[in-house]
């Protein structure tokens, strides 16, 4: 690696997290494209195909995240982000060029696209955490979440701008334009350095020192940080050799694995993606108006998500993780359940009431469960099991996302919307109970203290808690 001049840390952090834009764009773009696709291909009464087309990306992402984690350890974070951007661009253009009534073709292409989406969801946080200094890691993880929701908002705005076009052209442009941010990411990442941790791992400490000189203001600490990275790399290599899949369910780690994987799973089964993918169709079913005329609602949701991500950055280290997750889950659950109760008590209530409550849901989700799930997953697993356990958590999260995207249109075709959302509401409240009884607090705790809560050796944890409460 030859870098002729210093690369600004701002440039590195911006393009290092820019993959979140792609992730977010593809989450959001089908929201506006689907109503036009349904009209063009006459899918209004085919809930199964609608669910498969929408959820195919998440199905591909289940495998994309796992593959990216394995391959990035061999080829590097930077090369895998480049490959993801390329797959994303190609997949977007292939989607736009789908043959008429090519449902199977579009499902397969979107599964291919999902490989890039899953890879981005795994690679961007890993790259950012390895590039950022410890004191900025929390806020920079918030930057990744902000990029994701900004990508969602961007897709909603593009959907709204293109809604006046003929159906056959509108959905194709919406899907195809995803190639633009993919190209921007590819060009930006070409100038990015590889992460110092990967360079150390592959035997290039001098290059790692050079990269650290780009992103650390205080160059006098670089040698100490490099020594820490080398030590951690050796520990991780030793841990990988002594860890098997059976280690995850051993008595020592079972509690923490259940906690981390459980949080990642609950996040998806709480129904957030049902709103993000299908809000125009939800409004259509509530009001009777065409879904293609309801594309302002996704923009409102996107603005709420961006503001919520910024709020999270501001309060991330001021409140306990469990406190925020409990607050968010409780309000989210009530936002799903109250419309059902109100409609039962007052049958003539405006059908738009459910949409208003969905906005409340999105607001609290945006600064609690959305960012904190991945913060907690990143903190809760000890070094010995971190790689395997994080991969399992990510896979369960994507499986949940895929199932919600697949089953929601089928459920609403056979049940009232209020009943479907009531089910999600109950899951939200079960998630709160899970947080209170099965998840340890991780804010301000070392990995050793967190691990002690799962092994029965609570001395370090209790001492830390007592000191914190003084």
TrEMBL record:
The keyword Membrane applies. It is a multi-pass membrane protein. Pfam families: Sugar_tr. The chain crosses the membrane at residues 12-37, 49-68, 80-98, 104-128, 140-158, 170-190, 255-279, 294-315, 324-346, 352-377, 389-408, 420-439. One of its GO terms (molecular function) is carbohydrate:proton symporter activity. NCBIfam families: SP. This is D-xylose proton-symporter. It comes from Secundilactobacillus similis DSM 23365 = JCM 2765.
């Amino acid at each position: 690696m030859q870098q002729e001049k210093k690369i600004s840390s701002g440039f590195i952090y911006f393009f290092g997290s820019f993959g979140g834009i792609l992730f977010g764009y593809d989450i959001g773009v089908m929201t506006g494209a689907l109503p036009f696709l349904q009209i063009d291909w006459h899918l209004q009464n085919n809930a199964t195909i609608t669910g498969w087309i929408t959820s195919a990306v998440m199905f591909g992402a289940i495998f994309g995240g796992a593959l990216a984690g394995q391959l990035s350890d061999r080829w590097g974070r930077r090369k895998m982000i480049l490959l993801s951007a390329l797959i994303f661009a190609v997949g977007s253009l292939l989607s736009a060029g789908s043959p008429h009534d090519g449902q199977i073709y579009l499902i397969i292409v979107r599964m291919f696209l999902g490989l890039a989406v899953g890879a981005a969801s795994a690679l961007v946080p890993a790259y950012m955490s390895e590039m950022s200094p410890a004191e900025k890691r929390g806020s920079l993880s918030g930057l990744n979440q902000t990029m994701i929701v900004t990508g969602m908002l961007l897709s909603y705005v593009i959907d709204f701008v293109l809604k006046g076009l003929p159906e056959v052209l509108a959905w194709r442009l919406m899907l195809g334009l995803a190639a633009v941010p993919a190209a921007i990411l590819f060009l930006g990442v070409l100038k990015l350095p590889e992460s110092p941790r990967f360079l150390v791992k592959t035997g290039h400490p001098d290059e790692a020192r050079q990269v650290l000189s780009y992103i650390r203001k205080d160059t006098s600490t670089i040698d100490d940080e490099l020594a820490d990275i080398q030590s951690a790399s050796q520990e991780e290599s030793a841990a990988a050799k002594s860890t098997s899949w059976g280690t995850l369910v051993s008595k020592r780690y079972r509690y923490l694995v259940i906690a981390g994987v459980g949080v990642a799973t609950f996040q998806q089964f709480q129904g957030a993606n049902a709103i993000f993918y299908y809000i125009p169709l939800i409004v259509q079913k509530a009001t009777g108006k065409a879904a293609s005329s309801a594309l302002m609602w996704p923009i409102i949701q996107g603005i709420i998500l961006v503001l919520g991500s910024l709020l999270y950055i501001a309060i991330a280290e001021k409140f306990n993780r469990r406190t925020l997750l409990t607050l968010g889950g409780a309000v989210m659950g009530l936002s799903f359940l109250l419309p059902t109760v109100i409609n039962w008590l007052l049958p003539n209530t405006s059908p738009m009431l459910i949409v208003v409550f969905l906005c409340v849901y999105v607001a609290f989700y945006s600064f609690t469960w959305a960012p904190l799930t991945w913060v907690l997953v990143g903190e809760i697993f000890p070094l010995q099991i971190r790689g395997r356990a994080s991969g399992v958590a990510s896979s369960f999260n994507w499986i949940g996302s895929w199932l919600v995207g697949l089953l929601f249109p089928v459920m609403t075709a056979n049940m009232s919307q209020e009943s479907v959302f009531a089910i999600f509401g109950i899951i939200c409240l079960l998630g709160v109970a899970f947080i209170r009884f099965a998840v340890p607090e991780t804010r301000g705790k070392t990995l050793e203290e967190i691990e002690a809560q799962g092994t029965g050796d609570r001395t370090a944890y209790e001492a830390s808690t007592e000191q914190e409460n003084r």
